[in-house]
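The record is given unchanged here:
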Amino acid sequence: MKRFHAHVHVDDLAQSIAFYSKLFAAAPTRVEADYAKWMLEDPRVNFAISTRGTTPGLDHFGLQTDDAAELAELKARAEAADMALLDEGNTTCCYARSEKHWVTDPQGIAWEHFHTLGDIPVFNEAAPSSAAGACCTPAAAAPAPAAPRAACCGPATATNSKTSCC
């Protein structure tokens, strides 16, 4: 079964954790110095917030799968939608090791499809010196001009052209 995913950049992590914990009637399932995540069952959503970005607001949407077969199905759907697809394969981001790919919708909103393989103790394992980053979209694949990006980014879009991650 798939799970809806949304990632929002926030200015004040503690204040946002307090707000969303009350809104969802649940504490986050993971909290780091720059990140928090709720894995909710009703509704079935993976909601993440982080301070990794320059402007608060929506970074991206996504669908998280429970297995590789569901991820392959989502990849086929994304390819059928005739949108450019960035296949990152196995990568690390947001304190997790995942298999993932990205598409950008006609409005410029990035969509991440991923299958989480396990937790890691750091936000990502990408070397900061890599040009495109271990899981970053190359500027040529982005639908809008891309700003310099940190490792672990979705496709650069009008709504998330800042340094960001899942």
User: Anything to note?
Assistant: The CA atoms of residues 69 and 117 lie 13 Å apart. The longest helix spans residues 68-80.
